[in-house]
Amino acid sequence: MNYVDIPWEEKQAALDAIQRLREEFAARGWFPASSGSLSMRVGRYTPDRFVFAVTADETYKSELSAAPSPPAGVLFVDAAGAPCEPTRLKPCADAPIHARIYRMTGCGAIAHVHTTFNNVLSDYFAADGGVPLKGNELLKSLEIWETQAEIRVPILPNAAELPAILKQIPGSLDTSVPALLLQNHGIYAWGANITKAKRHLEALEFMFEALYRSLLLPPKGHHA
Q1: Portion of the chain with pLDDT greater than 90, in percent
Q2: Taking every annotated instance into account, which residue ranges of this chain make up the domain Class II aldolase/adducin N-terminal (predicted)?
Q3: What does each C-alpha distance from 214 to 98, 125, 135, 207, 218 come to in angstroms?
Q4: β strands within the chain, DSSP E
Q5: Structural contact between residues 19 and 40, judged by C-beta atoms closer than 8 angstroms
Q6: Residue 44 in contact with residue 1, Cβ under 8 Å?
Q7: DSSP character string of 129-143
Q8: pLDDT of residue 145
Q9: Distance between CA atoms of 4 and 19, rounded to whole angstroms?
Q10: Nearest CA among 64, 62, 57, 69 for reference residue 23
């Protein structure tokens, strides 16, 4: 499907959904210093041909508006991360990472946020290659129903240059774990649609915080 063939209503729904989620996550402090990004796929999909709406580069966008707090910009890009129509907005710098995840998973939406807990744990468990999560009730939000189930959210080393990050993303992703972490950077969580991507992200961030706080507890039987 060409971009021009995607119904206007579907495009508008994507723009509205991203704007609402951007405001909600910003209110939670999950987009510090204009960081983070959101995207949502529209139209038909094949691994080498698809379109997605993605948040714009905040630094560049702010230069286009005299308003002190302009609304978040969103634009449509193709599988290569190039804008689908003329615009003065630029895609967020990590749009190629979104494109790679869409290409490998066929998911419908992706949320990327920076939080204290995902940063601390991604550094703490970096040598292990992933953050272990076990037995938490919110694993069910990832469609994992086994009692005492355990997963590992993969951690990739961060890099200054985007091509270096892209090379580290594995050729296939564990579909049962809809997320990956960049060390000392943030998380990318995805789902079949933007509602599921949001639920996965919220569940993982809750479990990250619970794990972090559990690591601060003294050993059982310890008395001051």
Answers
A1: 75
A2: 16-212
A3: 32, 14, 13, 10, 9
A4: 37-46, 49-55, 74-78, 109-113, 130-134, 150-156, 179-182, 186-191
A5: no
A6: yes
A7: TEEEEES-GGGGGGT
A8: 85
A9: 22
A10: 69
* Of 21, 193, 224, nearest in space to 113 by CA: 21
pLDDT digits (tens, 9 = 90+) for 24-82: 999 999 999 889 999 999 999 999 999 999 999 975 544 444 444 444 599 999 999 99
pLDDT in tens, 15-26: 999 999 999 999
Task: Supply φ then ψ for residue 113, to 5 degrees.
Answer: -135, 160
Q: What single letter denotes the amino acid at residue 106?
A: G
Instruction: Reduce the DSSP state of residue 54 to 3 states and report it.
Output: strand
**Rounded to whole angstroms, how far apart are CA atoms 210 and 213?**
5
DSSP state of 18: H
Look at strands 74-78 and 150-156 and give their pairing.
unpaired
**What is the pLDDT averaged over residues 185-190?**
96
In single-letter form, the type of residue at position 87 comes to T
Model-wide pTM > 0.70? yes
The per-type count for the chain, helices as H runs and strands as E runs, is 6, 8
Residue type, 157: P
Long-range contacts at 83-91 (CB < 8 A, ≥ 24 apart)? 84/3, 84/51, 85/3, 88/64, 89/56, 89/57, 89/60, 89/61, 89/64, 90/56, 90/57, 90/60, 90/61, 91/54, 91/56, 91/57
- Going by C-alpha positions, the residue among 207, 219, 218, 26 that lies closest to residue 117 is 207
